Amino acid sequence: MKNLTQYLFLILFIYSFAACKNDTPKPPTPPDAVDSTKQEPPKPKIIPIDGQPISLVVTTRQAIIRVAPSIEAAEIARRSKGDSLLFTNRISQFNTAIKLEGVAYNEPWLRVILEDNTMGWIYGACINFDARQQVQLKEKVLDQRAVALFGFSLAQQIAAYQKEVSSTSTLPAFRTLYSRAKILKDSLEQQMEIYVKTAQELPDFFWLNELMDGLLVHYIEDQNKYYLFKDLRIWQSISSQTLEKEDDTFVEMLLATYPSDSIAFYFYGWELPIDSHTRCSLLGSNIHSNVLDKIQVALDSNSYFNTEINDLKQALIDDIAVSEQYWLPLEQIQEELELIIKKQYPFLSSGDRIALKTRRQLLQKHVENNITINLFEGR
Fold first, then answer.
1. pTM for this entry
2. What are the residue ranges of helices labelled H in 151-170?
3. Greatest distance between any 2 Cα atoms in the chain
4. How far apart are the first and last CA of the chain?
5. DSSP 198-241
6. CA-CA distance, 361 to 23, in Å (whole number)?
């Protein structure tokens, strides 16, 4: 009987303990608790190509990314002008003739990677890039683009110019390169003007900057025209490659002519454009006298650039003697003009001297002579 009682007591104890354990309430789950069994999807990462991603910049108003290198392939994304994409070092083995924004191209396709690691293909004519990073890409895209848009002869001139930039080591070679740049500038500006007039939208020609050191593409909106301007800091670097000093003094004169940013614009540094048709003189700012000083040094050192120097001198004298509008006050204008006359530069002709002295007299009665001064103050 005693054993039975002990047995029943043990069963009752076990049952009571199990019941208490099952009745214990579970603590509430915090509302911001994370279920460890669920994992967040991985964030997309940009995949570098050999540790050096090559960035392509969209230059057309809109670019379509396709699943394959074909105009018939499905579209997977679109990018706008100025957007960047990563090149995956894959170029199609063929070109496709496509007309974009009124301009006919014949270029390969480039495989790119999007932000979510999706691969796609973009048409070559839609992009620009740093050509120094990818020589193969430059040859297959930019060099071929130059041939397609400007013809084989002009494309060859571009290539020859760029080759000479890096190999120029003598004064005659510098002189030849400077002359070639002028010819190239005129030819390309003429061709770009034709495209601007005939294309449905403004074509992008800034990719030319990747092919020609020392020449910069600029678009002047109020003229609706592309220009090629000399980057004089690059020309200064080229002149330093030669042993002679004549080209150095010549470039120093040019730098004095464009003192604000060392870019040889379509107007001189001593002029200020009021609008697309009107410019006023900056006489009184000491730009004129500084350029005349540099001209004197350049002429003393050589006769290699006499034509360019004389053209520059005549343009400067004309600005002083013929301008009808001046930016600065009369006192500053007269002060610099008097300085120029007193220096008696030996390279000035008798006609130049007469013109300067006549202008001095006319400025003394500028109102009667319909000469506007101090445009800076709006007078």
1. 0.81
2. 152-167
3. 148
4. 129
5. HSSSPPP-GGGGGT-TTEEEEEEGGGTEEEEEEEHHHHHHHHTT
6. 113
Q: What are phi and psi of 199, to 5 degrees?
A: -75, 150
User: Which residue reads 């108003």 in tokens?
Assistant: 61
What is the Cα–Cα distance from 218 to 195, expressed in whole angstroms?
15
Q: What does the pLDDT look like over 154-178, one tens digit per residue?
A: 999 999 999 999 899 999 999 999 9
How confident is the model at residue 2, as a pLDDT?
43
3-state secondary structure of 92: coil
- Cβ atoms of residues 343 and 356 within 8 Å: no
Asked whether 227 and 215 are in contact (CB, 8 A), the reply is no
The vertex-109 CA angle with 108 and 111, nearest 5°, equals 145
The angle, 0 to 180 degrees and rounded to 10, between the axes of the packed helices 287-301 and 246-257 is 170
Locate 272 and state its tokens: 């200020």
- Quick check: 337 and 287 in contact, CB under 8 A? no
